[in-house]
Specification:
By secondary structure, the chain is mainly alpha-helical. It has one domain: Orthogonal Bundle (Non-ribosomal Peptide Synthetase Peptidyl Carrier Protein, Chain A), CATH 1.10.1200. The chain has helices spanning 12-27, 47-61, 69-72, 76-84. Helix 1 (12-27) runs antiparallel to helix 4 (76-84). The chain is globular and about 30 Å long. The termini are far apart. Mean pLDDT is 89; it is low at 1-8.
């Protein structure tokens, strides 16, 4: 009997938690202050910060992501659901 190892994937909930923690750290606020339904732009995220977030998320997930990801999926909840599929 052979065992097939599948790539470990992060689910939407884990991605959402990572995004909240990462954004809270960057903004120097408590994670509970982050509304996952608010657009990234409402947190003052500009294009440089958005590309940086995409890069950090890419490193954490271990897969290539588009640098425009934050603009294509403009909230934490939407982005997490997209990536967790």
């Amino acid at each position: 009997m052979s065992v097939i190892m599948r790539e470990s994937r992060h689910g939407a909930e884990a991605i959402e938690e990572w995004l909240v923690a990462h954004l809270a750290m960057e903004l120097k606020i408590e994670p509970c202050e982050i509304d996952v339904g608010e657009p990234f732009a409402s947190f003052g995220m500009d294009s440089v910060a958005a590309v940086g977030l995409s890069g950090d998320l890419e490193d954490w997930l271990g897969r290539e992501l588009s640098p425009t990801l934050v603009w294509d999926y403009p909230t934490i909840a939407v982005l997490a659901r997209h990536l967790g599929c």
